[in-house]
């Protein structure tokens, strides 16, 4: 890209670039003005010449826009218009976006970028009228970049129809935006009905924020029928838990990642969500109360009771300079490779369709098999706050008894100690414990 003062003689002398150069397709050629930075001429392989400006938006995005076609606009007219727009840029204004908004021509990609910038700055409120959490924004950004922009990014919001949105949902479900894992880190981009439905929820929410704050006139995703994905019913049976435990012990002897193995066992003993478990910090453990004090979760700050077997596992983790119970192999973060470790272990165990969520569901199902109520299990899983009843001490004591019982039973199954005779006597013990819990109000 050459740089010189743009004049009529220079523009007239510009020749169309060849469609390809050294086997590489050439889209256009640029000449930039040496006096007015950001002002230039674009020459297409067809010979079409246009005046352009290039600048960085207040959000940090590089933007290039055509401001007029040579022949319909003189060089001096183009220079004057470019100067006006670039002066606006220096004052923190994105002139192209402002013009597009005035004409109703904002693209889906531009609205998504606006949403991310505003949300990261804390100017968009989410649940409970609080700034959207970084973890939620990270997921929103992933869906935007992986699915929304490739399918709808260049479409103008004002021209978008409900059918276009539902068509994009169908494309995601069919795997049109799927991509394999790139490199040694990160995951693959997958499709499917669940991914499609959640992406549509994200897009609908973005448009709603944009309408509420005056960025667009109407939400084109309003009324979209989101795909209903089948709920995941997979849980490990008692015999599968025993098989998994045996494989975990064998994998440890074979040199499998110890942090990954410990995290898998903890997920079964405590029923935590994957990132709740991996992100556990040592200062959050309250041994006296047998609980984890989360400063923040999906439903806000929370106290989560766990069994003594789960606490012992945490305390057995090697102490390092890291604040996490399950630290990363390098860097200052926490371990993130539990899914790959779980996949390897389950392959050796001959167990199919197992995810960290399956382990959480297995914990809940085992608690149900032991006779505990849905309200008690929901409290152990951290599904929602238990309201005023959480203030009563006997409810907390009942939860500790429940957490201990479920964790002990899970540990016995994993370690091969749950014999048939013990299971029968255990049912009698559980019946007595259930009566005790009912008497205390659980």
TrEMBL record:
Pfam family, one: Phage_integrase
Domain Tyr recombinase stretches: 231-405
InterPro entries for this protein: CB, DNA_brk_join_enz, Integrase-like_cat_sf, Integrase_catalytic, Integrase_DNA-bd_sf, Integrase_DNA_bind_dom, Integrase_recombinase_N, Phage_Integrase
Core-binding (CB) domain span: 106-211
GO terms of molecular function: DNA binding
GO term, biological process aspect, one: DNA integration
Keyword list, A-Z: DNA integration, DNA recombination, DNA-binding
CDD domains in UniProt: INT_Rci_Hp1_C
Top-level taxon: Bacteria
Statement: the UniProt record of this protein carries the keyword Nucleotide-binding: no
Coiled-coil regions listed: none
Polar residues biased stretches: 433-442
PROSITE patterns for this protein: CB, TYR_RECOMBINASE
Region ranges (Disordered): 173-193, 413-442
Gly residues bias (residue ranges): 184-193
Family stated for the protein in its record: Belongs to the 'phage' integrase family.
Name this polypeptide is given: Tyrosine recombinase XerC
Organism the protein comes from: Rhodoplanes serenus
Gene (UniProt): xerC_2
């Amino acid at each position: 890209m050459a740089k010189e003062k743009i004049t009529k003689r220079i523009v007239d002398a510009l020749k169309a670039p060849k469609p390809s150069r050294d086997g590489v397709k050439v889209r256009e050629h640029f000449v930039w003005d040496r006096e007015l930075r950001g002002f230039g001429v674009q020459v297409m392989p067809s010979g079409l010449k246009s005046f352009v400006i290039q600048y960085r938006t207040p959000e940090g995005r590089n933007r290039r826009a055509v401001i007029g076609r040579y022949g319909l606009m003189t060089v001096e007219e183009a220079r004057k218009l470019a100067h006006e727009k670039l002066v606006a840029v220096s004052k923190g204004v994105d002139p192209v976006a402002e013009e597009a908004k005035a004409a109703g021509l904002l693209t889906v990609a531009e609205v998504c970028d606006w949403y991310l910038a505003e949300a990261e700055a804390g100017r968009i409120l989410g649940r409970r009228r609080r700034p959207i959490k970084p973890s939620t924004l990270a997921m929103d950004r992933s869906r935007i970049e992986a699915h929304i922009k490739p399918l709808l990014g260049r479409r103008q919001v004002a021209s978008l129809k409900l059918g276009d949105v539902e068509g994009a949902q169908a494309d995601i479900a069919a795997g049109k935006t799927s991509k394999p894992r790139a490199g040694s880190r990160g995951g693959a981009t997958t499709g499917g009905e669940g991914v499609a439905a959640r992406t549509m929820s994200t897009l609908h929410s973005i448009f709603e924020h944009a309408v509420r704050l005056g960025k667009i006139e109407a939400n084109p995703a309003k009324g979209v029928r989101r795909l209903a994905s089948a709920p995941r019913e997979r849980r490990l049976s008692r015999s599968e838990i025993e098989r998994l435990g045996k494989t975990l012990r064998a994998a440890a002897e074979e040199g499998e990642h110890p942090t990954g193995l410990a995290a898998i066992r903890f997920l079964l003993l405590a029923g935590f969500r994957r990132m709740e478990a991996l992100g556990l910090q040592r200062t959050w453990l309250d041994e006296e109360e047998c609980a984890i004090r989360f400063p923040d979760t999906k439903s806000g700050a929370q106290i989560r009771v766990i069994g003594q077997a789960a606490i012992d596992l945490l305390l057995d983790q090697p102490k390092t300079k890291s604040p996490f119970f399950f630290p990363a192999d390098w860097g200052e973060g926490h371990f993130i490779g539990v899914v790959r470790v779980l996949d390897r272990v389950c392959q050796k165990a001959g167990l199919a369709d197992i995810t960290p969520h399956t382990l959480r569901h297995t914990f809940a199902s085992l608690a149900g098999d032991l006779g505990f109520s849905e309200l008690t299990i929901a409290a152990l899983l951290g599904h929602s706050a238990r309201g005023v009843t959480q203030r009563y001490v006997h409810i907390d004591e009942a939860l500790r008894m429940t957490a201990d019982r479920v964790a002990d039973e899970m540990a016995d199954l994993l370690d091969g100690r749950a014999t048939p005779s013990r299971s029968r006597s255990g049912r009698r013990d559980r019946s007595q414990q259930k009566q005790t819990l009912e008497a205390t109000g659980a």
